[in-house]
Amino acid sequence: MPFPVPSAVVQLLKPITWFPPMWAFGCGVVASGVPAQGRWGLIVIGVVLAGPLVCGTSQAVNDWFDRHVDAINEPQRPIPSGRVPGRWGLYIALLWTGLSLAVATLLGPWGFAAAVLGLLLAWMYSMPPFRLKNNGWWGNAACAVSYEGLAWFTGSAVMAGGAMPHPHSIVLAALYSAGAHGIMTLNDFKAIEGDRQMGVQSLPVRLGVMGAAKVACWFMALAQLAVVLLLIGWGHTGHALAVGGLLLLQLALMDRFLDDPRRHAVAYSGLGVTLYVIGMLASAFALRSGGGS
To answer: Which helix (H) or strand (E) segment is 187 a member of?
Structure first.
């Protein structure tokens, strides 16, 4: 069996998708309130684990089990195009899973546990008989938790010396995971035809284009509104105003997105999601200013 083209392996792991979990990990580091001095090595390991390893694994797993859908939606991808031939897509997914687990052992028990859960969700998302992605509610939740909540949790756990992060940090990680459910829905608008043909019940397929778009906006908006209210309650009014201002800008963009969701989904993903993750960092700095509380 021929070896895959190296550039195709990089494409299979999709470096562009590594940013969200790496950013969320960084937010967890900031939210811990712990100085980075003496922990830079672990921080770098955690960033690599969150992005190139765990996220990269999820991309390889998804492309392997989605190769038939991709042959319809995006035949130029590495596996359906033949640039990653035979069963190499599966072998790479298994190799990256093992490498991720090995690296995760360096991050303490809670960091390791978060990585294990993230990898488990990555496989369950795409692999039969679980195939969480066949249900847009469950599939998007699995991605959102892995990309945002678990990465944030891991960052805080690393800074806490491998211990359980502060409850306020965990609450924010959970809320931003909930909001990211809507972000995951944005990615489904480009694959509606292939999903219908292959029986993938994404939210645009289940609810229709407009219904899914409204649900995505509600998830993102309500999660951030809850963050604003909590920050006020925790005494971080300035940071709450910053997150609230970013939310108002997103609401204006959402109004345009809802005019034609299929047309504007990519544009909203670029600008609206950028405002969302800036708000994540602002809320993390709120906890840092309060010593993680």
So the answer is: none
